[in-house]
Every structure is written in structure tokens, then in C-alpha cells.
Write a structure and sequence with these properties.
Layout: H1 22-35, E1 40-46, H2 47-50, H3 60-67, E2 70-76, E3 83-90, H4 97-113, E4 117-121, H5 128-140
Parallel strand pairs: 3-4
Antiparallel strand pairs: 1-2, 2-3
Helix pairs in contact: 1-5
């Protein structure tokens, strides 16, 4: 492995202090509690890490469309690490037209791949039981 000529302090990277927003962190905690170990919860997963594009040489534009998008939370089977479903936390920004177009596209991607997606409206608080019920209903179709 060749050593880079750039020294680490010269690179423009800095650690973010806001990996999850306050609302996302609050929901994450309730989601983990609601699932009670039945699923692993991964926050901010890139769609390109979940899905692949069939015939990539013919469909590069479809790859590009998922390349910079993520799902707020991905639930995984703790044994196989297989994705079980996505969860999107919809805050006030989801009322914007550009955001609605993005949300509709993400919904279509999940549907095309056969992976359930649960949308939860952001709130001041959540009931773990209600979230658990929503997850079960979404998984069972």
C-alpha cells in the first residue's frame, strides 16, 4: 500500500457533531426500545448499500438516482443481517414539493425491490407500543 503524499492535517475532513438530528435520535431510542432486540436498527443507510440496479450498463441513470439518497433507519435481521424494512421519519420538510418528489421516488424504489417502508410523522413523543405495532403491520404487509 503506497503512502499518500497528503498528510492527514491537510485533508479538509472534519467529524460532524450532528450525525442524527435531535428528532432522529429521539425516534431512534424509541424504535430500539419498541423492537426489544428483535431487529437491529441502522441509521442513515445509503440506498445504494441496500439496493442494486439490474443491468447497470443499461441503467446507469437509475444508479445515479439512488446514489446520494439514504433511508433514515434500516431494520435488519440480527442473525443474517438481511434488511427487513426501512423507516423514514417525516418532519415538516416533507411538505415541500421537492421533498415530496424525493419521498415518492424512495417509496417506489422500496416497492420495486419488495422491501417494506414505514413512514412515521415526526412528533414530540412516541409510544413504543404504537411503533412496535406499526413495524409488525408493515412487515406483515
Amino acid at each position: 500500500l503506497a503512502a499518500s503524499s497528503e498528510r492527514p492535517e491537510q485533508l479538509p475532513y472534519r467529524q460532524r457533531d450532528d450525525f442524527l438530528s435531535t428528532a432522529e435520535l429521539s425516534f431512534y431510542r424509541v424504535l430500539v426500545m419498541a423492537l426489544d432486540g428483535s431487529h437491529l436498527v441502522c441509521p442513515k443507510v445509503n440506498l445504494a448499500d441496500i439496493f442494486f440496479v439490474a443491468r447497470p450498463n443499461e441503467n446507469q441513470s437509475y444508479r445515479n438516482k439512488i446514489d446520494r439518497k439514504h433511508v433514515d433507519f434500516l431494520l435488519l435481521d440480527p442473525t443474517t443481517m438481511k434488511p427487513i424494512m426501512g423507516v423514514e421519519l417525516d418532519d415538516a420538510s416533507h411538505a415541500r414539493r421537492d421533498r415530496q418528489d424525493r419521498d415518492e421516488f424512495v417509496d417506489q424504489v422500496f416497492e420495486a425491490a419488495g422491501l417494506p417502508l414505514l413512514r412515521v410523522r415526526a412528533a414530540a413523543s412516541y409510544s413504543p407500543q404504537t411503533i412496535a405495532d406499526l413495524v409488525r403491520q408493515t412487515i406483515s404487509g
